[in-house]
Amino acid sequence: MAGCDRELFTPEALNLVHRYSKGIPRLINVICDNSLFEAFLIKKDIVDAETVDGVSTDLGLQKASSPGAKPLVSPKNHPIIPPEGLDTEEMESLGLIEDSGAD
After folding, report:
1. pLDDT tens sequence across 21-74
2. Each residue of 22-50: b (16+ CB within 10 Å) or e?
């Protein structure tokens, strides 16, 4: 947080934020905001894994099976328009799309 000189989340809590949010920015914000509020209400000075787990469960979220798990939405189902200057080969190398097989 801006102006804060100490850690607000334990490393384990941040790992759970990632697993519950699956990297989706809006979910990261919702989980963190609710976790900070919950920690404040129960007078904790740091958000721990237990707090993130409880908040995320209350929100009806499920953890990804592992920290490196792919998002639930498949890129095949949602076409990605490459940003200007980024071609299909570069997108494949970044893992944004699967190999099209068209050579």
Report:
1. 988 899 999 999 999 999 999 999 999 999 999 999 999 988 876 555 444 443
2. beeeebbebbbebbbebbeeeeeeebebe
- For residue 53, give both structure tokens: 């787990």
Planar angle of CA 14, 65, 76, nearest 5 degrees: 105
Output DSSP code: residue 84.
Answer: T
Q: What structural domains does the chain harbor?
A: 7-64 (1.10.8.60), 74-103 (no CATH)
Q: Which of these, 12, 8, 11, lies nearest to 32 by C-alpha position?
A: 8
For 47, phi and psi rounded to 5 degrees? -85, 120
